[in-house]
């Protein structure tokens, strides 16, 4: 059975965290100088472990195994959220390098912009499966400063490079190791999570139309306050969703924008971005029906009208049973009784790669559940156990002994 070199694995992780270091975390937004430096670092590491390294026109870094198959694909992403953690994404890429170093026939990939700095999100994994059009690239802009994606690619030195796609039939399956980004493992005293499925995220826009007016001259009886209508609707959603949501369903109001947004003006418009997540398509549909009922009730009761628009409706991705069995067998061999099967509450590149091949994910605990923050961390012994499990699971899956 191939063995992971845990010392080299941890050394690589700590070396990578120095690129864009911020406090105890990392700041490497997509296509920034720090991000591109990390991609060049990764290409050198790929060459060191015997892979043929390349970068494509969307920023995917790919290390191709030079020997015979059957091959695995493994990886994640290495850009980060702003002023965020050192393990989110990087763990899966460095873990994939460790699989190659252990002698497994694996192609390693770091997908671009899993963190969604640019409109559309998951640019790299969507591009590599053929799900990102040139027209979408033309339209996409940075969510923070409005920079056009085309301009960002040119500044990063990627303009004009071809975008690669996965070779049909080359890979037996895709593995992605990741931090949990939650507290389930830590609270249960467990060290590994075998992911059963990755949630779909359904995004919505709630546009509330009222009447902009003077905050002092307009009586309370006369007002059509879009802000108040939005707040009351969101409170109703939060009160009603527990009646029909799933055990691990979540819902989030990510942004509320009031127009014109001045303290002495009654807002005439409220623009709300809202999402919910679940691994069950049936449950997602039930939550959508509930949301539509609540908007309808709001429009019956309120003076301001709300329009509901779907922004994005992804499909949940279930993990491959055979790959899960390989992970479970490896976890039980290395950490008996210290693992569990669990869903992923976050989106990952694996949910897109799963559209082309069997896919599976392995979680290690997050200290305090912290992620998307520079304090994100995991015990080194858990990181080491994770990569040992990943390597053994990869070997078991290739051998069919799971």
From TrEMBL:
<dbReference type="InterPro" id="IPR036264">
    <property type="entry name" value="Bact_exopeptidase_dim_dom"/>
</dbReference>
<dbReference type="Pfam" id="PF01546">
    <property type="entry name" value="Peptidase_M20"/>
</dbReference>
<feature type="binding site">
    <location>
        <position position="372"/>
    </location>
    <ligand>
        <name>Zn(2+) 2</name>
    </ligand>
</feature>
<dbReference type="InterPro" id="IPR002933">
    <property type="entry name" value="Peptidase_M20"/>
</dbReference>
<keyword id="KW-0378">Hydrolase</keyword>
<keyword id="KW-0464">Manganese</keyword>
<dbReference type="InterPro" id="IPR010158">
    <property type="entry name" value="Amidase_Cbmase"/>
</dbReference>
<dbReference type="GO" id="GO:0016813">
    <property type="term" value="F:hydrolase activity, acting on carbon-nitrogen (but not peptide) bonds, in linear amidines"/>
</dbReference>
<feature type="binding site">
    <location>
        <position position="115"/>
    </location>
    <ligand>
        <name>Zn(2+) 2</name>
    </ligand>
</feature>
<keyword id="KW-0479">Metal-binding</keyword>
<protein>
    <submittedName>
        <fullName>Amidase, hydantoinase/carbamoylase family</fullName>
        <ecNumber>3.5.-.-</ecNumber>
    </submittedName>
</protein>
<dbReference type="GO" id="GO:0046872">
    <property type="term" value="F:metal ion binding"/>
</dbReference>
<feature type="binding site">
    <location>
        <position position="88"/>
    </location>
    <ligand>
        <name>Zn(2+) 2</name>
    </ligand>
</feature>
<comment type="similarity">
    <text>Belongs to the peptidase M20 family.</text>
</comment>
<feature type="binding site">
    <location>
        <position position="178"/>
    </location>
    <ligand>
        <name>Zn(2+) 1</name>
    </ligand>
</feature>
<feature type="binding site">
    <location>
        <position position="88"/>
    </location>
    <ligand>
        <name>Zn(2+) 1</name>
    </ligand>
</feature>
<feature type="binding site">
    <location>
        <position position="77"/>
    </location>
    <ligand>
        <name>Zn(2+) 1</name>
    </ligand>
</feature>
<comment type="subunit">
    <text>Homodimer.</text>
</comment>
<keyword id="KW-0862">Zinc</keyword>
């Amino acid at each position: 059975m191939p063995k992971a070199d845990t010392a080299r694995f941890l050394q690589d992780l700590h070396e990578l965290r120095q690129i864009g270091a911020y406090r105890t975390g990392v700041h490497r937004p997509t296509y920034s100088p720090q991000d591109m430096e990390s991609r060049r670092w990764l290409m050198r590491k790929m060459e060191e472990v015997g892979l043929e390294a390349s970068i494509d026109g969307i920023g995917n870094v790919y290390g191709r195994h030079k020997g015979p198959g059957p091959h695995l694909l493994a990886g994640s992403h290495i850009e980060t959220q702003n002023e965020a953690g050192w393990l989110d994404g990087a763990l899966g890429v460095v873990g994939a390098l460790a699989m190659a170093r252990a002698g497994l026939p694996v192609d390693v990939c770091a997908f671009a912009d899993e963190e969604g700095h640019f409109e559309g999100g998951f640019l790299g994994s969507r591009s590599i499966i053929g799900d990102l059009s040139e027209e979408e690239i033309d339209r996409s802009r940075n969510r923070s400063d409005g920079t056009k994606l085309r301009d960002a690619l040119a500044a990063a030195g990627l303009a004009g490079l071809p975008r690669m796609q996965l070779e049909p039939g080359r890979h037996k399956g895709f593995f992605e190791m990741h931090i949990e980004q939650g507290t389930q493992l830590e609270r249960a005293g467990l060290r590994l999570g075998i992911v059963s499925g990755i949630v779909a995220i359904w995004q919505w826009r709630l546009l509330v139309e009222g009447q902009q007016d003077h905050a002092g001259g307009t009586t309370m009886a006369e007002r059509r306050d879009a802000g108040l209508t939005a707040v009351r609707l969101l409170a109703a959603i939060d009160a009603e969703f527990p009646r029909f949501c799933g055990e691990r369903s979540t819902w989030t109001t990510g942004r509320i924008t009031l127009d014109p947004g001045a303290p002495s003006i009654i807002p005439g418009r409220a623009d709300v971005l809202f999402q919910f997540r679940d691994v069950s398509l049936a449950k997602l549909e039930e939550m959508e029906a509930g949301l539509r009922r609540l908007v309808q009730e709001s429009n019956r009761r309120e003076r301001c009208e709300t329009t509901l628009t779907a922004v994005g409706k992804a499909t949940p991705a279930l993990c491959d049973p055979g790959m899960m069995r390989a992970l479970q067998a490896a976890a039980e061999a290395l950490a008996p009784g210290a693992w569990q099967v669990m869903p992923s509450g976050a989106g990952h590149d694996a949910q897109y790669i799963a559209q082309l091949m069997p896919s599976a994910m392995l979680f290690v605990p997050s200290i305090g559940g912290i992620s998307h923050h520079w304090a994100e961390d995991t015990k080194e012994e858990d990181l080491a156990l994770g990569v040992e499990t990943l390597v053994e699971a990869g070997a078991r899956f290739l051998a069919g002994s799971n």
